[in-house]
């Protein structure tokens, strides 16, 4: 009889500050931890259910409960759809495989040993005055990501640039603009040195991006989940934001990255707000990406131990004790 066992539970981690985007605010990261054991070895994975995709802690737990008594990474791709539930399980299976073979996941995948990647640091949506203060506090960081998505974002853009005159800035509108608002803002984004805008329009209206000028790169986030998303993005986007919680784990994320590059897209690797365990597999995925946005642990008041290392070189690959 197999000793394959899966355990999972919900956990909550308080944020250091309230985190606000165009569709709401949060004060804690609510995650699902999955642990899969075989032969006395345990692999772990973490996911963040996201209400934008009709996910809750309970729906993710229900999906995991539906799994058969034993499965592997290959069969998992058909057992669960892309999303947070499959992500936590898939990443736990990668961790289990690495620990069982006494290898790092990069070796299993056939990739070079990963190194640190400069990551964006996210400034949440707030008043212009508070966003300027936040930008000044983090002006030493080379890359700042601004959460926008309201009709009066111009003053926020100006404030952040004044607070951090030397940082590279990328903007995430979280589907909050109309095509008209984006067209009006685009010249000012260029003037203020913004180098990329993420998901300016709602995913169900992004066909308009094919009809208007895109003077700076536009990245698909809510419009891109897995490889099945790619055909609809043609002519609308220049980059894709790959998140493990959207792809349903590292297995599909690696395949999506390869196919997106082959179709001419640049790669951004992003995250939900989770712990270092959720970010760890994404550090491997982020190697060589045009933009890395794995700052989730930096937004927490408390992280897992061991945690990922962040310094002037960026976010470092995980210790094997954490993952992979």
UniProtKB/TrEMBL annotation:
Pfam family, one: MR_MLE_C
Requisite cofactors: Mg(2+)
EC number, as in UniProt: 5.1.1.-
Cofactor note (record): Binds 1 Mg(2+) ion per subunit.
Segments forming domain Mandelate racemase/muconate lactonizing enzyme C-terminal: 128-219
Keyword field contains Cytoplasm: no
Top enzyme category: isomerase
Keywords: Isomerase, Magnesium, Metal-binding
InterPro entries named among the record's database cross-references: DgoD-like, Dipeptide_epimerase, Enolase-like_C_sf, Enolase-like_N, Enolase_C-like, Mandelate_racemase_C, Mandelate_racemase_N_dom
Residues of the signal peptide: none
Family: Belongs to the mandelate racemase/muconate lactonizing enzyme family.
Record's protein name: Dipeptide epimerase
């Amino acid at each position: 009889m197999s000793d394959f066992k899966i355990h999972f539970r919900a956990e909550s981690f308080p944020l250091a500050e309230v985190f606000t985007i165009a569709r709401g605010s949060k004060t804690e990261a609510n995650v699902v931890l999955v642990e899969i054991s075989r032969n006395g070895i345990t692999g772990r994975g973490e996911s963040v259910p996201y209400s934008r995709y009709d996910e809750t802690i309970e729906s993710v737990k229900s999906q995991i409960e539906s799994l058969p008594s034993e499965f592997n990474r290959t069969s998992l791709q058909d057992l669960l759809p892309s999303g947070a539930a499959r992500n936590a399980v898939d990443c736990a299976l990668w961790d289990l495989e690495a620990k069982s073979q006494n290898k790092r996941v990069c070796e299993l995948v056939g990739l070079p040993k990963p190194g640190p990647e400069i990551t964006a640091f996210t400034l949440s949506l707030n008043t212009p005055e508070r966003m300027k203060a936040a930008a000044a506090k983090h002006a030493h960081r080379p890359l700042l990501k601004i959460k926008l998505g309201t009709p009066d974002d111009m003053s926020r853009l100006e404030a952040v640039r004044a607070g951090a005159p030397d940082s590279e800035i990328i903007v995430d509108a979280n589907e909050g603009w109309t095509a008209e608002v984006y067209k009006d803002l685009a010249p000012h984004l260029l003037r203020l040195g913004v180098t990329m805008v993420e998901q300016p329009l709602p995913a169900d209206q992004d066909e308009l991006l094919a009809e208007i000028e895109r003077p700076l790169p536009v990245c698909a986030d809510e419009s891109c989940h897995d490889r099945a998303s790619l055909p609809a993005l043609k002519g609308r986007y220049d980059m894709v934001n790959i998140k493990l919680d959207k792809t349903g784990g590292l297995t599909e994320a690696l395949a999506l990255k390869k196919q997106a590059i082959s179709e001419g897209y640049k790669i951004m690797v992003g995250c939900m707000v989770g712990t270092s365990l959720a970010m760890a597999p994404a550090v491997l995925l982020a190697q060589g990406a045009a933009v890395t946005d794995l700052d989730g642990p930096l937004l927490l008041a408390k992280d897992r131990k061991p945690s990922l290392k962040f310094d002037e070189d960026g976010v470092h690959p995980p210790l094997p004790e954490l993952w992979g």
